[in-house]
Amino acid sequence: MEIKEPILKLRQRREEAMLGGGEKRIAEQHEKGKLTARERIELLVDKDSFEEFDLFVDHRCTNFGMDKYRHPSDGVVTGSATINERLVYIFAQDFTIFGGSLSITNAEKICKIMDMAIKNGCPLIGLNDSGGARIQEGVDALAGYAEIFWRNVMASGVIPQISAILGPCAGGAVYSPAITDFVIMDKANSYMFVTGPKVVKTVLNETVTTEDLGGAMVHASKSGVAHFVSNSEEEAMLIIKKLLSYLPSNNMEDPPFIPTSDPINRSCDVLNELVPENSNKPYDMLDLIHQIVDDGEFLQTARNYAQNIIVGFARMNGHPVGIVANQPKVLAGVLDIDASIKGARFVRFCDAFNVPLIVLEDVPGFLPGTSQEHNGIIRNGAKLLYAFAEATVPKITLIVRKAYGGAYCVMNSRHMRADIVYAWPSAEIAVMGPKGAVEVIFRKEAMATDDPKQVLRDKEAEYIEKFANPFAAAERGYIDDIIEPARTRFRLIRALEMLANKKDSIPARKHGNIPL
Predict the structure, then answer these.
(1) Active site (annotated) includes residue 389
(2) Residue-wise pLDDT tens digits, 144-163
(3) Active site includes 406?
(4) For the chain, N or C: smaller number of CB within 10 Å?
(5) Catalytic one among 75, 131, 171, 333?
(6) What element of type H or E holds 229?
(7) Residues 213-237, buried b or exposed e (16+ Cβ, 10 A)?
(8) Do 423 and 479 touch, CB atoms closer than 8 A?
(9) How many separate domains does the chain show?
(10) Phi, psi for 431 (deg, rounded to 5)
Protein backbone atom coordinates (compact mmCIF):
# COMPACT_ATOMS: atom_id res chain seq x y z
CA MET A 1 0.00 0.00 0.00
CA GLU A 2 1.35 3.40 -0.96
CA ILE A 3 2.08 5.70 1.99
CA LYS A 4 0.57 9.15 1.60
CA GLU A 5 2.76 12.23 1.47
CA PRO A 6 1.56 13.74 4.79
CA ILE A 7 2.38 10.48 6.59
CA LEU A 8 5.84 10.37 5.02
CA LYS A 9 6.43 13.98 6.01
CA LEU A 10 5.34 13.27 9.60
CA ARG A 11 7.67 10.30 9.84
CA GLN A 12 10.56 12.29 8.43
CA ARG A 13 10.03 15.21 10.82
CA ARG A 14 9.65 12.84 13.75
CA GLU A 15 12.92 11.09 12.90
CA GLU A 16 14.72 14.42 12.67
CA ALA A 17 13.27 15.58 15.98
CA MET A 18 14.23 12.38 17.73
CA LEU A 19 17.87 13.08 16.88
CA GLY A 20 17.86 16.16 19.10
CA GLY A 21 20.85 18.33 18.27
CA GLY A 22 22.03 15.86 15.64
CA GLU A 23 24.40 12.92 15.42
CA LYS A 24 27.52 15.05 15.99
CA ARG A 25 26.16 16.47 19.26
CA ILE A 26 24.99 13.02 20.36
CA ALA A 27 28.52 11.68 19.75
CA GLU A 28 29.96 14.53 21.81
CA GLN A 29 27.55 13.67 24.63
CA HIS A 30 28.67 10.05 24.54
CA GLU A 31 32.34 11.09 24.50
CA LYS A 32 31.78 12.86 27.81
CA GLY A 33 30.44 9.60 29.25
CA LYS A 34 26.88 10.93 29.27
CA LEU A 35 23.68 9.49 27.87
CA THR A 36 21.19 11.47 25.84
CA ALA A 37 17.85 12.56 27.29
CA ARG A 38 15.92 9.82 25.50
CA GLU A 39 18.48 7.15 26.42
CA ARG A 40 18.07 8.11 30.06
CA ILE A 41 14.30 7.86 29.88
CA GLU A 42 14.56 4.49 28.17
CA LEU A 43 16.77 3.22 31.01
CA LEU A 44 14.38 4.48 33.66
CA VAL A 45 10.91 3.50 32.50
CA ASP A 46 9.09 0.30 31.61
CA LYS A 47 9.76 -0.84 28.06
CA ASP A 48 7.72 1.01 25.41
CA SER A 49 5.76 2.93 28.06
CA PHE A 50 7.01 6.47 27.33
CA GLU A 51 4.48 8.80 25.72
CA GLU A 52 6.21 11.97 24.56
CA PHE A 53 4.49 15.34 24.39
CA ASP A 54 5.46 18.51 22.51
CA LEU A 55 8.05 16.84 20.30
CA PHE A 56 7.74 19.57 17.67
CA VAL A 57 7.82 22.60 19.98
CA ASP A 58 10.50 25.10 18.95
CA HIS A 59 11.74 28.34 20.46
CA ARG A 60 10.35 31.72 19.42
CA CYS A 61 13.45 33.82 20.05
CA THR A 62 14.79 36.09 17.28
CA ASN A 63 17.46 37.90 19.34
CA PHE A 64 21.15 37.61 18.38
CA GLY A 65 20.42 35.56 15.27
CA MET A 66 18.62 32.80 17.17
CA ASP A 67 15.99 32.60 14.41
CA LYS A 68 18.64 30.91 12.23
CA TYR A 69 18.92 27.95 14.64
CA ARG A 70 15.86 25.75 14.89
CA HIS A 71 15.65 22.47 16.80
CA PRO A 72 12.37 20.62 17.48
CA SER A 73 11.77 19.82 21.18
CA ASP A 74 13.84 22.88 22.17
CA GLY A 75 16.22 21.18 24.56
CA VAL A 76 13.89 19.17 26.78
CA VAL A 77 12.06 15.85 26.35
CA THR A 78 8.76 15.61 28.24
CA GLY A 79 6.08 12.98 28.68
CA SER A 80 4.55 10.27 30.82
CA ALA A 81 5.56 6.66 31.37
CA THR A 82 5.29 3.83 33.84
CA ILE A 83 7.92 2.59 36.26
CA ASN A 84 7.10 -0.85 37.61
CA GLU A 85 3.62 -0.30 36.12
CA ARG A 86 3.03 2.95 38.05
CA LEU A 87 2.38 6.16 36.12
CA VAL A 88 4.96 8.95 36.40
CA TYR A 89 5.63 12.20 34.56
CA ILE A 90 9.14 13.00 33.33
CA PHE A 91 11.17 15.80 31.84
CA ALA A 92 14.72 15.20 30.64
CA GLN A 93 16.86 18.12 29.58
CA ASP A 94 18.62 17.55 26.24
CA PHE A 95 22.15 18.89 26.34
CA THR A 96 22.58 18.30 22.59
CA ILE A 97 20.23 21.23 21.88
CA PHE A 98 21.59 24.61 23.01
CA GLY A 99 23.29 22.87 25.95
CA GLY A 100 19.87 22.04 27.42
CA SER A 101 19.47 25.74 28.26
CA LEU A 102 16.08 26.95 29.41
CA SER A 103 14.00 29.11 27.07
CA ILE A 104 10.44 30.24 27.66
CA THR A 105 9.10 27.48 25.38
CA ASN A 106 11.34 24.91 27.06
CA ALA A 107 9.91 26.02 30.43
CA GLU A 108 6.35 25.86 29.09
CA LYS A 109 6.92 22.20 28.19
CA ILE A 110 8.18 21.42 31.69
CA CYS A 111 5.32 23.35 33.31
CA LYS A 112 2.75 21.43 31.27
CA ILE A 113 4.16 18.15 32.58
CA MET A 114 4.21 19.46 36.14
CA ASP A 115 0.57 20.55 35.90
CA MET A 116 -0.41 17.12 34.58
CA ALA A 117 1.48 15.38 37.38
CA ILE A 118 -0.31 17.44 40.03
CA LYS A 119 -3.76 17.01 38.48
CA ASN A 120 -3.34 13.27 38.03
CA GLY A 121 -1.62 12.65 41.37
CA CYS A 122 1.56 11.08 39.98
CA PRO A 123 5.26 11.42 40.86
CA LEU A 124 7.35 13.95 38.92
CA ILE A 125 10.89 13.08 37.85
CA GLY A 126 13.34 15.62 36.45
CA LEU A 127 16.53 14.52 34.69
CA ASN A 128 18.67 17.65 34.76
CA ASP A 129 21.51 18.37 32.32
CA SER A 130 21.46 22.04 31.41
CA GLY A 131 23.72 25.02 30.94
CA GLY A 132 21.14 27.21 32.70
CA ALA A 133 19.03 30.06 31.40
CA ARG A 134 19.25 30.76 27.66
CA ILE A 135 21.00 34.11 27.76
CA GLN A 136 19.64 35.22 24.37
CA GLU A 137 16.10 35.18 25.78
CA GLY A 138 16.83 37.47 28.72
CA VAL A 139 13.92 37.93 31.11
CA ASP A 140 11.79 35.36 29.26
CA ALA A 141 14.13 32.61 30.44
CA LEU A 142 14.02 33.94 34.00
CA ALA A 143 10.22 34.00 33.83
CA GLY A 144 10.33 30.37 32.75
CA TYR A 145 12.39 29.40 35.79
CA ALA A 146 10.05 31.24 38.13
CA GLU A 147 7.04 29.40 36.65
CA ILE A 148 8.80 26.10 37.35
CA PHE A 149 9.73 27.11 40.91
CA TRP A 150 6.15 28.07 41.68
CA ARG A 151 4.89 24.67 40.51
CA ASN A 152 7.59 22.89 42.55
CA VAL A 153 6.21 24.60 45.64
CA MET A 154 2.58 23.86 44.74
CA ALA A 155 3.46 20.19 44.20
CA SER A 156 5.41 19.94 47.46
CA GLY A 157 3.72 17.52 49.84
CA VAL A 158 1.17 16.64 47.12
CA ILE A 159 3.21 14.41 44.80
CA PRO A 160 6.73 13.03 45.23
CA GLN A 161 9.30 15.07 43.27
CA ILE A 162 12.66 13.52 42.41
CA SER A 163 15.57 15.27 40.68
CA ALA A 164 18.56 13.57 39.07
CA ILE A 165 21.52 15.84 38.29
CA LEU A 166 23.34 14.24 35.37
CA GLY A 167 25.36 17.19 34.08
CA PRO A 168 25.72 20.90 34.81
CA CYS A 169 23.16 22.63 37.00
CA ALA A 170 24.05 26.22 37.76
CA GLY A 171 22.57 29.60 38.63
CA GLY A 172 18.80 29.74 38.96
CA ALA A 173 18.57 26.15 37.70
CA VAL A 174 19.66 24.77 41.07
CA TYR A 175 16.60 26.00 42.94
CA SER A 176 14.08 23.71 41.28
CA PRO A 177 15.95 20.55 42.36
CA ALA A 178 16.49 22.09 45.81
CA ILE A 179 12.72 22.37 46.32
CA THR A 180 12.10 18.77 45.25
CA ASP A 181 12.03 15.94 47.76
CA PHE A 182 15.14 14.00 46.73
CA VAL A 183 18.23 14.89 44.71
CA ILE A 184 20.46 12.29 43.08
CA MET A 185 23.82 13.40 41.66
CA ASP A 186 25.98 11.41 39.26
CA LYS A 187 29.53 11.41 40.58
CA ALA A 188 31.23 11.55 37.18
CA ASN A 189 29.55 14.43 35.39
CA SER A 190 27.27 16.45 37.64
CA TYR A 191 27.75 19.66 39.57
CA MET A 192 25.52 22.27 41.19
CA PHE A 193 26.30 25.83 42.24
CA VAL A 194 24.69 29.26 42.27
CA THR A 195 27.83 30.94 40.92
CA GLY A 196 30.66 29.16 39.12
CA PRO A 197 34.42 29.14 39.70
CA LYS A 198 35.03 32.13 37.38
CA VAL A 199 32.63 34.35 39.33
CA VAL A 200 34.12 33.17 42.63
CA LYS A 201 37.58 34.08 41.31
CA THR A 202 36.42 37.52 40.11
CA VAL A 203 34.46 38.47 43.22
CA LEU A 204 36.46 36.82 46.00
CA ASN A 205 39.79 36.18 44.29
CA GLU A 206 39.39 32.57 45.38
CA THR A 207 40.56 29.78 43.08
CA VAL A 208 38.39 26.67 43.20
CA THR A 209 37.65 23.82 40.82
CA THR A 210 34.19 22.95 39.58
CA GLU A 211 34.35 19.69 41.52
CA ASP A 212 35.43 21.30 44.78
CA LEU A 213 32.82 24.02 44.47
CA GLY A 214 29.77 21.98 43.57
CA GLY A 215 30.60 18.36 42.79
CA ALA A 216 28.47 15.41 43.85
CA MET A 217 30.49 14.49 46.95
CA VAL A 218 30.61 18.11 48.11
CA HIS A 219 26.82 18.29 48.09
CA ALA A 220 26.45 14.80 49.53
CA SER A 221 28.80 15.35 52.47
CA LYS A 222 29.04 19.10 53.15
CA SER A 223 25.96 21.00 51.97
CA GLY A 224 23.40 18.21 52.28
CA VAL A 225 21.82 19.18 48.93
CA ALA A 226 22.32 15.70 47.43
CA HIS A 227 20.56 12.75 49.07
CA PHE A 228 22.15 10.11 46.84
CA VAL A 229 25.34 9.86 44.78
CA SER A 230 25.52 7.43 41.87
CA ASN A 231 28.63 5.99 40.25
CA SER A 232 26.96 5.98 36.84
CA GLU A 233 23.81 7.19 35.13
CA GLU A 234 22.54 3.61 35.11
CA GLU A 235 22.89 3.47 38.88
CA ALA A 236 21.08 6.83 39.19
CA MET A 237 18.08 5.35 37.38
CA LEU A 238 18.12 2.31 39.67
CA ILE A 239 18.11 4.60 42.71
CA ILE A 240 15.06 6.45 41.38
CA LYS A 241 13.23 3.14 40.84
CA LYS A 242 14.13 1.89 44.32
CA LEU A 243 13.10 5.16 45.95
CA LEU A 244 9.73 5.18 44.17
CA SER A 245 9.03 1.65 45.40
CA TYR A 246 8.66 3.04 48.95
CA LEU A 247 6.52 6.05 48.04
CA PRO A 248 2.83 6.53 47.27
CA SER A 249 1.91 8.28 44.03
CA ASN A 250 0.42 11.20 45.95
CA ASN A 251 -0.47 12.43 49.43
CA MET A 252 -3.94 10.83 49.35
CA GLU A 253 -2.64 7.29 48.90
CA ASP A 254 -0.86 4.83 51.17
CA PRO A 255 2.67 3.69 50.33
CA PRO A 256 2.82 0.54 48.17
CA PHE A 257 2.64 -2.82 49.96
CA ILE A 258 4.99 -5.55 48.70
CA PRO A 259 4.50 -9.05 50.20
CA THR A 260 7.49 -10.52 52.01
CA SER A 261 8.54 -14.01 53.03
CA ASP A 262 10.44 -12.63 56.03
CA PRO A 263 8.51 -13.93 59.11
CA ILE A 264 6.93 -11.35 61.41
CA ASN A 265 8.09 -13.27 64.48
CA ARG A 266 11.67 -13.79 63.30
CA SER A 267 13.84 -13.61 66.38
CA CYS A 268 16.81 -11.22 66.24
CA ASP A 269 18.94 -12.91 68.87
CA VAL A 270 22.12 -10.97 68.00
CA LEU A 271 20.42 -7.80 69.23
CA ASN A 272 20.60 -9.10 72.81
CA GLU A 273 24.36 -8.56 72.55
CA LEU A 274 24.39 -5.38 70.46
CA VAL A 275 24.65 -2.70 73.17
CA PRO A 276 27.99 -2.72 75.06
CA GLU A 277 27.91 -2.94 78.87
CA ASN A 278 29.95 0.25 79.03
CA SER A 279 27.47 2.94 78.05
CA ASN A 280 30.27 5.12 76.65
CA LYS A 281 31.27 2.52 74.06
CA PRO A 282 29.87 2.94 70.53
CA TYR A 283 28.09 0.40 68.34
CA ASP A 284 26.64 0.60 64.83
CA MET A 285 22.92 1.44 64.77
CA LEU A 286 22.77 0.13 61.21
CA ASP A 287 23.28 -3.36 62.64
CA LEU A 288 20.00 -2.95 64.53
CA ILE A 289 18.17 -1.58 61.49
CA HIS A 290 19.28 -4.37 59.17
CA GLN A 291 18.20 -6.96 61.74
CA ILE A 292 14.64 -5.73 62.21
CA VAL A 293 13.55 -4.71 58.69
CA ASP A 294 12.25 -7.02 55.97
CA ASP A 295 15.08 -9.03 54.38
CA GLY A 296 17.65 -6.62 55.85
CA GLU A 297 16.91 -4.04 53.11
CA PHE A 298 17.33 -0.39 54.06
CA LEU A 299 17.51 2.54 51.63
CA GLN A 300 19.52 5.12 53.53
CA THR A 301 19.18 8.70 52.34
CA ALA A 302 21.86 11.38 52.80
CA ARG A 303 24.24 8.71 54.09
CA ASN A 304 27.31 10.97 53.75
CA TYR A 305 25.82 14.01 55.46
CA ALA A 306 25.37 14.50 59.22
CA GLN A 307 26.27 10.87 59.82
CA ASN A 308 25.43 11.11 63.53
CA ILE A 309 21.80 10.62 62.48
CA ILE A 310 20.48 7.95 60.13
CA VAL A 311 17.37 8.38 57.99
CA GLY A 312 15.93 6.16 55.30
CA PHE A 313 13.24 3.78 54.09
CA ALA A 314 12.60 0.13 54.80
CA ARG A 315 9.69 -2.31 54.97
CA MET A 316 8.15 -3.98 57.96
CA ASN A 317 5.96 -6.94 57.01
CA GLY A 318 5.72 -5.53 53.47
CA HIS A 319 4.71 -2.00 54.46
CA PRO A 320 7.09 0.96 53.93
CA VAL A 321 8.33 2.83 57.00
CA GLY A 322 10.63 5.79 57.53
CA ILE A 323 13.41 5.21 60.05
CA VAL A 324 15.10 7.97 62.06
CA ALA A 325 17.95 6.77 64.26
CA ASN A 326 20.83 8.22 66.24
CA GLN A 327 24.21 6.75 65.27
CA PRO A 328 26.39 6.16 68.39
CA LYS A 329 29.29 5.36 66.08
CA VAL A 330 29.54 9.02 64.95
CA LEU A 331 29.89 11.84 67.51
CA ALA A 332 28.27 9.46 70.03
CA GLY A 333 24.95 10.05 68.24
CA VAL A 334 24.53 13.63 69.46
CA LEU A 335 22.15 16.02 67.75
CA ASP A 336 23.83 18.98 66.08
CA ILE A 337 22.65 21.55 63.55
CA ASP A 338 23.12 19.40 60.45
CA ALA A 339 21.60 16.28 62.03
CA SER A 340 18.57 18.22 63.23
CA ILE A 341 17.90 19.70 59.80
CA LYS A 342 18.44 16.36 58.06
CA GLY A 343 16.09 14.58 60.45
CA ALA A 344 13.42 17.28 60.32
CA ARG A 345 13.26 17.30 56.53
CA PHE A 346 12.91 13.52 56.41
CA VAL A 347 10.23 13.44 59.11
CA ARG A 348 8.18 16.08 57.31
CA PHE A 349 8.45 14.17 54.02
CA CYS A 350 7.24 10.94 55.62
CA ASP A 351 4.36 12.75 57.30
CA ALA A 352 3.33 14.40 54.02
CA PHE A 353 3.18 11.04 52.23
CA ASN A 354 1.67 8.79 54.88
CA VAL A 355 4.83 6.86 55.68
CA PRO A 356 4.85 5.66 59.34
CA LEU A 357 7.87 6.64 61.42
CA ILE A 358 10.08 4.42 63.56
CA VAL A 359 12.55 6.23 65.81
CA LEU A 360 15.55 4.37 67.23
CA GLU A 361 16.93 6.50 70.04
CA ASP A 362 20.38 6.59 71.59
CA VAL A 363 21.11 10.27 72.11
CA PRO A 364 23.35 11.80 74.81
CA GLY A 365 22.14 15.33 74.06
CA PHE A 366 22.90 18.26 71.77
CA LEU A 367 26.44 19.02 70.65
CA PRO A 368 27.89 21.81 72.85
CA GLY A 369 30.24 24.58 71.82
CA THR A 370 30.42 28.14 70.52
CA SER A 371 30.28 27.05 66.88
CA GLN A 372 26.96 25.27 67.39
CA GLU A 373 25.47 28.03 69.53
CA HIS A 374 26.56 30.85 67.23
CA ASN A 375 25.29 29.04 64.15
CA GLY A 376 21.88 28.44 65.66
CA ILE A 377 21.61 25.04 67.34
CA ILE A 378 18.62 26.37 69.29
CA ARG A 379 16.72 27.38 66.16
CA ASN A 380 17.84 24.43 64.08
CA GLY A 381 17.41 21.85 66.84
CA ALA A 382 13.86 23.12 67.22
CA LYS A 383 13.17 22.11 63.60
CA LEU A 384 13.37 18.42 64.49
CA LEU A 385 11.22 18.96 67.55
CA TYR A 386 8.68 20.83 65.41
CA ALA A 387 8.65 18.14 62.71
CA PHE A 388 7.91 15.31 65.14
CA ALA A 389 5.27 17.33 67.01
CA GLU A 390 3.51 18.24 63.75
CA ALA A 391 3.56 14.71 62.27
CA THR A 392 0.27 12.81 62.41
CA VAL A 393 1.39 9.51 60.84
CA PRO A 394 1.92 6.53 63.17
CA LYS A 395 5.01 7.29 65.30
CA ILE A 396 6.82 4.59 67.25
CA THR A 397 9.91 5.22 69.38
CA LEU A 398 12.32 2.61 70.67
CA ILE A 399 14.79 3.85 73.29
CA VAL A 400 17.84 1.66 72.80
CA ARG A 401 20.24 3.25 75.26
CA LYS A 402 20.71 6.93 76.10
CA ALA A 403 17.82 9.39 76.13
CA TYR A 404 19.22 12.44 77.86
CA GLY A 405 17.90 15.93 78.42
CA GLY A 406 16.08 17.97 75.80
CA ALA A 407 17.25 15.54 73.12
CA TYR A 408 15.05 12.87 74.79
CA CYS A 409 12.06 15.11 74.15
CA VAL A 410 13.10 16.03 70.62
CA MET A 411 13.54 12.41 69.50
CA ASN A 412 9.78 11.75 69.49
CA SER A 413 9.13 11.08 73.16
CA ARG A 414 5.71 10.18 74.55
CA HIS A 415 5.22 13.85 75.38
CA MET A 416 5.63 14.75 71.69
CA ARG A 417 2.66 12.45 71.06
CA ALA A 418 4.53 9.32 70.06
CA ASP A 419 1.89 6.61 69.69
CA ILE A 420 3.99 3.80 71.13
CA VAL A 421 7.22 4.04 73.11
CA TYR A 422 9.26 0.92 73.79
CA ALA A 423 12.59 0.62 75.58
CA TRP A 424 15.28 -1.99 75.79
CA PRO A 425 16.55 -2.94 79.26
CA SER A 426 19.71 -0.96 78.39
CA ALA A 427 17.74 2.32 78.16
CA GLU A 428 18.90 5.27 80.27
CA ILE A 429 16.38 8.11 80.54
CA ALA A 430 17.56 11.14 82.50
CA VAL A 431 18.21 14.86 82.38
CA MET A 432 21.90 14.16 81.81
CA GLY A 433 24.55 11.45 82.13
CA PRO A 434 25.27 10.04 85.62
CA LYS A 435 28.76 11.55 86.01
CA GLY A 436 27.69 15.07 85.04
CA ALA A 437 24.52 14.85 87.10
CA VAL A 438 26.17 13.91 90.40
CA GLU A 439 28.81 16.61 89.95
CA VAL A 440 26.04 19.19 89.66
CA ILE A 441 23.94 17.82 92.53
CA PHE A 442 26.54 16.62 95.03
CA ARG A 443 29.72 18.57 94.30
CA LYS A 444 29.47 20.83 97.36
CA GLU A 445 28.54 17.94 99.60
CA ALA A 446 31.45 15.85 98.32
CA MET A 447 33.99 18.65 98.70
CA ALA A 448 33.08 18.93 102.39
CA THR A 449 34.23 15.33 103.02
CA ASP A 450 37.67 13.74 103.38
CA ASP A 451 37.30 11.73 100.15
CA PRO A 452 35.30 13.73 97.57
CA LYS A 453 36.06 11.31 94.72
CA GLN A 454 34.69 8.33 96.63
CA VAL A 455 31.56 10.23 97.59
CA LEU A 456 30.96 11.18 93.97
CA ARG A 457 31.55 7.57 92.89
CA ASP A 458 29.00 6.36 95.43
CA LYS A 459 26.48 8.97 94.35
CA GLU A 460 27.08 8.10 90.69
CA ALA A 461 26.31 4.44 91.42
CA GLU A 462 23.15 5.56 93.22
CA TYR A 463 22.15 7.75 90.28
CA ILE A 464 22.74 4.89 87.82
CA GLU A 465 20.60 2.59 89.94
CA LYS A 466 17.81 5.16 89.99
CA PHE A 467 17.89 6.59 86.45
CA ALA A 468 20.17 4.58 84.13
CA ASN A 469 17.37 2.14 83.39
CA PRO A 470 13.91 2.37 81.83
CA PHE A 471 11.86 1.41 84.89
CA ALA A 472 11.34 4.88 86.37
CA ALA A 473 9.86 6.08 83.06
CA ALA A 474 7.80 2.89 82.74
CA GLU A 475 6.36 3.39 86.23
CA ARG A 476 5.09 6.79 85.11
CA GLY A 477 3.56 5.45 81.90
CA TYR A 478 6.02 7.28 79.67
CA ILE A 479 7.10 3.94 78.21
CA ASP A 480 4.53 1.41 77.06
CA ASP A 481 6.74 -1.62 77.54
CA ILE A 482 10.30 -2.72 78.17
CA ILE A 483 11.05 -5.34 75.55
CA GLU A 484 13.69 -7.96 74.94
CA PRO A 485 15.92 -6.81 72.04
CA ALA A 486 15.53 -10.13 70.20
CA ARG A 487 11.75 -9.50 69.99
CA THR A 488 12.08 -6.00 68.56
CA ARG A 489 11.01 -6.82 65.00
CA PHE A 490 7.91 -8.63 66.18
CA ARG A 491 6.86 -5.91 68.61
CA LEU A 492 7.38 -3.08 66.12
CA ILE A 493 5.36 -4.83 63.41
CA ARG A 494 2.54 -5.53 65.87
CA ALA A 495 2.54 -1.86 66.88
CA LEU A 496 2.41 -0.77 63.23
CA GLU A 497 -0.53 -3.10 62.60
CA MET A 498 -2.33 -1.69 65.61
CA LEU A 499 -1.79 1.87 64.31
CA ALA A 500 -2.67 1.13 60.67
CA ASN A 501 -5.97 3.04 60.84
CA LYS A 502 -4.73 5.91 63.00
CA LYS A 503 -6.50 9.21 62.41
CA ASP A 504 -5.08 12.37 63.93
CA SER A 505 -5.15 16.07 63.15
CA ILE A 506 -3.61 19.34 64.20
CA PRO A 507 -5.47 22.61 64.89
CA ALA A 508 -6.90 24.30 61.78
CA ARG A 509 -4.50 26.91 60.40
CA LYS A 510 -3.07 28.22 57.16
CA HIS A 511 0.32 26.77 58.10
CA GLY A 512 2.58 26.67 61.11
CA ASN A 513 5.71 28.78 61.45
CA ILE A 514 8.55 26.27 61.67
CA PRO A 515 11.73 28.01 62.95
CA LEU A 516 13.50 28.26 59.60
Answers:
(1) no
(2) 999 999 999 999 999 999 99
(3) yes
(4) N
(5) 171
(6) strand 228-230
(7) bbbbebbbbeebbbbbbbeebeebb
(8) yes
(9) 3
(10) -65, -35
